Amino acid sequence: KVQTLSDITKMKYEKEMVQLCGLLEKERNYDRDCVHVDMDAFYAAVEMRDFPQLRNIPMAVGGYSMLSTSNYVARQFGVRAGMPGFIASRLCPQLEIVPLNFDKYTKESRVLSSILSQYDPNLSMGSLDEAYIDLTQYAAIRSSSVRHKRIRYGGDCVCRLPLVKDNDHPGVVQSIEREEVCTKCSHSRKIIEDEVEFGIGRAEIVREMRFRVEQATGLTCSAGIAPNFMLAKVCSDQKKPNDQFELENDPQAVNDFIKELPTRKVSGIGRVAEAHLSALGITKCGDIITLAHLLPCAFSSLGVESMLRIGLGLGSNMHSRDSKDSSRKSISLERTFSPTSDSRFLTQMLYEFCEQLIEQASSKIKSASGLSLKVKLSNFETLTRT
DNA sequence: GCGGATCAC
DNA sequence: TATGGTGATCCGC
C-alpha cells in the first residue's frame, strides 16, 4: 500500500498539532483594541510635501544603488522600495530620484509619536513611520465625542497637497471658506476651515488620530484595528493609502479574515518561510491549520508554534510587538564593496570599523550615563591576519 | 558561544 | 557605473 508523506505525517503529528492548538487557544483574547499606524510612502511623501514639483511625477527616495521608497505614481511603473535605483530608472526613465534626508524624517516621526502617545503612553514605534498603539484603556475611558478644526486647501496653489479628500467627511459641524493669495507660489487659493467631530468607539478614535497626524504633518497614514498586533499590522495594509481597516474582536470575523490571508502578508513570514510553506501546499493562513501535520517537516518546534499562532489568528505573545523591550542590544557596522583579496585594504577597513564602533559605543555610553569608555586597539595586524 | 540564515524596515 | 545598512532572533554546530 502506497502512503503519501501527508498520510505518514498525519499519523505521526496530527494528534500533537491538535493538542498544541488547544493549548494556544487558551491565550485567545478579544478584550484588547490594538492599532497599527503606518505612514503612506513616508519618505516620498515628506519630499513631495516639501517640493511641490515632485507631486505629480514618478519619484523615489534613495540612490542609484537602492531606493527606500517610491511615490504612488512611480509604483505604477513597478518602481518599489528596495529596488536598485538604476533598475528603477530603466523601468521608468522619467523617475526622479531624491536623496535620503534622514533628519527630516526623524523630525516628522517625533511629531507622529507625540500625537499617538496621547492615546497610549506606552506605544512602541516599529520604525520612523509606524507605530503600535494599545488603545484599550483610552477607548474604555472616552465617553464623549471630540471636535477639531480642519484646514483644507482648494484653488490653484500647489504648495499644499489636497490632503483631505472631498468625500472624506467626518461629522462636519460648521464650515468657513476664505480666499487668499499664496505667498509661496502666488497662486490664489481657497482655504476651507471646518469644525469636525469624532465620536466614541475605537474606529472613530483612530480616524481622529489619523486626522490629527495629517493636520500636523501634512502627511497621510493608514491604520489597522484588531484584537492583537499581529492582526493589526496586517490590517493597516488592507486599505492603504490614507484609510483604515477594522477587524472586529469577534471569533468569526477573525477566522474569516485569516482563512484567505496569503501567508506572506504576515510580519515574520519572509521569502524563505513562504517558500517552505508553499512546498507543503500552504499558501493561505487557513491552510496552516488544515495542513498543520505537515509543519514539522519544514520547521523547528518554535517555528511550528509560531506558524500555528498565525493560523489561529493569535498574537505573537512573547517577543516583539506585544511587549517590546526597546533597549538596544548591539551596535554594528557593515559596508558593501567589490570583491577583493587585498588583505591590507581589508585590514585597514576592519580597523576603521573598529574605531568607528568604539566611537559610537563610547558616545552612547557617555550620553546615557556620563561615564567614559576607553578602548585600546592593539596588535590589530595579528588579530585580523586570518 | 559563535557564525550563518532569516526577517523587518 | 551601479543591488544597502542596522538590529534582532533562532538554529546548528
From TrEMBL:
Signal peptide: none annotated. Residues 34-270 form the UmuC domain. One of its GO terms (cellular component) is nucleus. It catalyses: DNA(n) + a 2'-deoxyribonucleoside 5'-triphosphate = DNA(n+1) + diphosphate. The keyword Zinc-finger applies. GO terms for molecular function: damaged DNA binding; DNA-directed DNA polymerase activity; zinc ion binding. Keywords: DNA damage, DNA repair, DNA replication, DNA-directed DNA polymerase, Magnesium, Metal-binding, Nucleotidyltransferase, Transferase, Zinc, Zinc-finger. Coiled coil: none annotated. Its EC number is 2.7.7.7. GO terms for biological process: DNA repair; DNA replication; embryo development ending in birth or egg hatching; error-prone translesion synthesis. This is DNA polymerase kappa. The chain holds residues 54 to 439 of 605 of the full protein.
